[in-house]
Amino acid sequence: MAKYQAWLGLILALTLAAIFVITQLPTRLGLDLRGGSQLTLQVQPTATITTVGEREMAAVQKVVEGRVNGLGVSESVVQQLGNNQLLIQLPGVSDPEEAERILGGTAQLEFRSQKPGTEGQLPIEQQLLQAHVAELAALQVNLRKNTTLDAETQGKIDKLKADIKASENAIGALFEPSQLTGDQLTDALAAPGGGTQWVVKITFNKQGGERFAELTRSLAGTGRGLGIFLDNRLLSAPRVDVQYAETGIAGGNAEISGNFTAQSARDLEVQLRGGALPLPVKVVENRTVGPTLGRDSIQSSLYAGIGGLILVLLFMAIYYRLPGMVADIALVIYALLTWAAFNLLGVTLTLPGIAGFILSIGMAVDANVLIFERTREELRAGKTLYRSVESGFYRAFASILDSNVTTLIACAALFWLGAGLVKGFALTLGLGVVISMFTALTCSRTFLFVVLGMPQLRKPAWFCPGLSTPVLRSKP
In terms of DSSP bridges, do strands 28-29 and 348-349 run parallel, antiparallel, or are they unpaired? Predict the structure, then answer.
């Protein structure tokens, strides 16, 4: 009994922790529940780049993500769809034409020289920009917790967006345009630079190499930076060493060094390649979901989920009597643990995701049904109540494991090969299956053996209706 008391303590702690997570972390709702815009972009090949591969798609995706961040959209989603498409979800965006205009253009990568006399002003403008971006991010985090957007909050968001745009323009005004652009950059690659430092190696074509040499010669040893701009947004402003004051960095090859980690070097590499690719994108779908439809969907889904849960609870209590009531308690714990896991892992809940959650409720009961039916078989065979329950769990384990593993395999295939809403369904169903195994084999087992420790509840008829007296068998 001491062992089951320890399990009871663990289950109680997990339940309280789940309630705390649910109350403290808001549930992330998808586009179909919150309302907003969804765009599908198709990357178009060109005469110079006839095949769009994984490397090209990663670069274009990075550029699009930067543009989405510039929109200031909270909880946006940018993911690859198939071999040459990107799916962009923008919750709360009510002007899809504006989003299409911003996201649909070809990336513009430029190399600019910093103007003389602006060495002290650039870090100040960069600090202001970082402060505005951080303030907007904090406001969006609070907005996700409160899930309400009043006129005052919207005004703050609009003002911060305007301030960010003004800061970006102010930084751009500190640099002079040049004729060196992304179409002359042939490659960018992150590589180790010695020790723990990383560098980004860039390569230009012949014309770009000549212009790059001129540009770096004019900046070498001056303390001014070489501004690398993507869509008028400063990515980096490295300085040129004085040793290149006479010839510049010739040959069309250069290294951008600094306090780069492997990840930050990789990010800059992808951004540079994205700006260097002359790949246009075409908007093939632009869909808008109104917030009213989202609220109706949430309400209908909640009714369906609560109604299904109540029907399952009633069926288990009526048909399986005392074990059914124990399973009902485990099922409520399962629902709390699953909901908390969604919030803790940042799962974005969509309508298919809610469907997967509701389906996993039925599958959570399925394990208990197998256990209880096995227990009844053992009771009818004349075993004691304790041995019957123990044997029911033992004999049903293989069937429960097989059914759940096959379901998890299907979920893994849907998540790996699917996209968008299909992934949401696979993730919620798979997570629900894993937690249902825990509650069926741990919570239900613990509760049943605790019940068996109470003499007033140790009645075989409450476990198997119609069985009044145990069958006694003589030993051979």
Answer: parallel
How many CB atoms are located within 10 Å of the residue 256 CB? 22
Read off the pLDDT of residues 214-267 as tens digits, 9 standing for 90 and up: 888 888 888 888 888 887 888 888 888 888 888 888 888 888 887 788 888 888
CATH code assigned at 424: 1.20.1640.10
How many Å apart are CA 227 and CA 287, to the nearest integer? 37
Contact indicator for 278, 258 with CB cutoff of 8 Å? no
d(CA 132, CA 118) in angstroms, rounded, equals 21
Q: Report the C-alpha gap between 118 and 102 in whole angstroms.
A: 30
SS3 176: strand
- pTM for the model stands at 0.57
In-domain check, residue 333: yes
Domain range spanning residue 342?
A: 2-30+290-462
First to last CA, the chain: 33
94 part of a folded domain? no
**Can you tell me the distance from the alpha carbon of 125 to that of 243, in angstroms, rounded to the nearest whole number?**
29
Successive 10-residue mean pLDDT values, the chain, 476 residues: 75 91 80 75 78 80 74 69 81 65 68 89 89 81 59 79 88 88 83 80 88 89 87 84 86 82 81 69 75 64 76 85 86 88 80 76 78 83 80 81 85 78 78 83 82 78 65 44
Under DSSP, is residue 72 helix (H, G, I), strand (E, B) or coil? coil
The answer as to whether 433 is a domain residue is: yes
Angle at 230 between CA 224 and CA 232, to 5 degrees: 80
Q: What phi and psi values does residue 148 have, to the nearest 5 degrees?
A: -125, 135
How far is 205 from 437, CA to CA, in rounded Å? Answer: 59
DSSP state of 114: E
Task: Give domain status of residue 305, yes or no.
Answer: yes
Tokens of 220: 């070498």
Rounded CA-CA distance 388/377 in Å is: 8
Q: Give the separation between CA 98 and CA 359, rounded to whole angstroms.
A: 38
Domain count of the fold of the chain? 1
Phi-psi region of 367 (alpha: psi -120 to 50; beta: other; left: phi over 0): alpha
